[in-house]
Design goal:
With 323 residues, the protein is an alpha/beta fold. Helix content is 32%, strand content 25%. Strand 4, helix 4 (90-98) and strand 5 form a beta-alpha-beta unit. Helix 3 crosses helix 4 (90-98) and helix 7 (215-237) packs parallel to helix 8. The longest helix has 23 residues, at 215-237. It starts with a strand and ends with a strand.
């Protein structure tokens, strides 16, 4: 028996904002954005497609992909830093939306590492016998948290949700190894200290209401920490990079991904990317990418993949799975 991912799903808002659109809001242009971070466009909520809405749609897609019904879920965990409300939690709202009447629900905030932290939590509950089938979601409406007058941050982020369902299954594989970490002493390099922003394009006079990031500090943190995490995983499992089919990383910045690949001495082709189309969707980025790989039949039984996230907190983690 093994705890396996049996289904994936995702949802992206219908509205697409390309770099040319952003150039009408702030002093930037398409070439500058693509060269610096690799993003061409991102999806933005229309105001009705909030975090719960997107999370519920991703959940329904994952349930369909897994071939199970919502009533079979024992637990729902939602990773998010941009919940629609403090109370009820996003997970409880998703439960009500999809009819998962048996599920225990809670949210988890680990920023861009949130999906991995939530997936680890799901595995722990299942392995302890406290749940059999768990829905894990990463969902973000970051357009509500961005200062649209700050060109250094507003070009980075997008909205979306991704989901995965894990349960006990016959056979081998599943989670092989995991490492996680946090460093609260560096929390100020990526913050969002206020709430109450209603209009995505409203410029609050209190800049602390919005996402604020020290880009260079986050860059240095990512390109140092992720390779270290991956090497820890490989050493723990006595595997080599050649044994890994894909490195599925948080989609933050093309330069970060390229440098991580270089430091690991791995061909960049092993690092699938979709940040050019979606931007940085925080906790949603890894499950959205995982869903794309799954639905495009790029993952086969027995494939080994490493997922790694890094973000505010600071937090980080990596997981080695056999599909």
């Amino acid at each position: 028996m093994a705890v396996r991912i049996i289904g994936t799903g995702s949802y992206l808002p219908k509205k697409v904002a390309d770099n040319h659109f952003l150039s009408t809001i702030v002093d930037t242009d398409d070439e500058w954005i693509q060269q610096r971070i690799g993003i061409k466009e991102r999806h933005l909520s229309n105001g009705k497609e909030g975090t719960t809405y997107m999370a519920a749609h991703a959940a329904e897609a994952a349930l369909e992909n897994a071939g199970i019904c919502a009533e079979e879920l024992d637990m729902i965990i939602v990773a998010t830093v941009s919940a629609d409300t403090y109370v009820p939690s996003t997970s409880c709202s998703v439960q009500g939306a999809i009819g998962a009447i048996r599920a225990t629900c809670f949210d988890l905030n680990a920023a861009c590492s949130g999906f991995l932290f939530s997936l680890n939590t799901a595995y722990a509950y299942i392995e302890m016998g406290m749940a059999k089938t768990v829905l894990v979601i990463g969902a973000e409406t970051l357009s509500r948290e961005v200062d649209w007058s700050d060109r250094s941050s507003c070009i980075l982020f997008g909205d979306g949700a991704g989901a995965a369902i894990v349960r006990w299954e016959e056979g081998e594989g599943g989670l092989i190894a995991s490492v996680t970490g946090s460093d609260g002493s560096q929390g100020d390099v990526l913050t969002c200290k206020g709430r109450g922003i209603q209009n995505p394009f409203h410029n609050s006079k209190r800049k602390k209401d919005y996402l604020k990031m020290e880009g260079q500090a986050v860059f240095r943190f990512a390109v140092t920490t992720v390779p270290r995490c991956v090497k820890q995983i490989l050493k723990k499992t006595e595997l080599d990079v050649e044994d890994i089919k894909f490195f599925i990383l948080h989609q933050a910045n093309l330069r970060i991904l390229e440098l991580i690949a270089k430091r690991l001495k791995v061909d960049i082709d092993k690092f699938p990317m979709n940040l050019d189309r979606y931007g940085n969707t925080s906790s949603a980025s890894i499950p959205i990418l995982l869903d794309e790989l799954n639905r495009n039949h790029l993952l086969e039984r027995g494939d080994k993949i490493i997922m790694s996230g890094f973000g505010g907190g600071l937090t980080w983690g990596a997981m080695l799975l056999e599909w």
